[in-house]
Specification:
By secondary structure, the protein is mainly alpha-helical. The protein is 57% helix and 0% strand. The chain has helices at 11-31, 42-57.
C-alpha cells in the first residue's frame, strides 16, 4: 500500500469502504439494471468510479491540484 498518497485518516478502512461502494454501484448498474443515464456507459462509469474512489481516499488525480 502507498500510504503516503492516501490522505484519508484511516487508509485501510477507506480502501475497504471504497471497494464496497464500487461493488454496490456495479451491482446496481449491472445486476439490477438501475438507470444511470449518461454515467452508465462503460467508459463513463469506469471514469466516475475511479474518480469517486481516488477522491474518497484523498488521492489527487494526475495533473490536478
Amino acid at each position: 500500500m502507498r500510504d503516503a498518497e492516501i490522505h484519508h485518516p484511516n487508509p485501510q478502512a477507506a480502501i475497504e469502504f471504497g471497494l464496497l461502494a464500487i461493488a454496490s454501484v456495479l451491482h446496481s448498474v449491472v445486476l439490477e439494471d438501475e438507470p444511470m443515464h449518461d454515467i452508465a456507459t462503460p467508459a463513463n462509469l469506469e471514469e466516475e468510479l475511479v474518480r469517486m474512489f481516488l477522491g474518497y481516499l484523498g488521492i489527487r488525480e494526475k495533473g490536478k491540484k
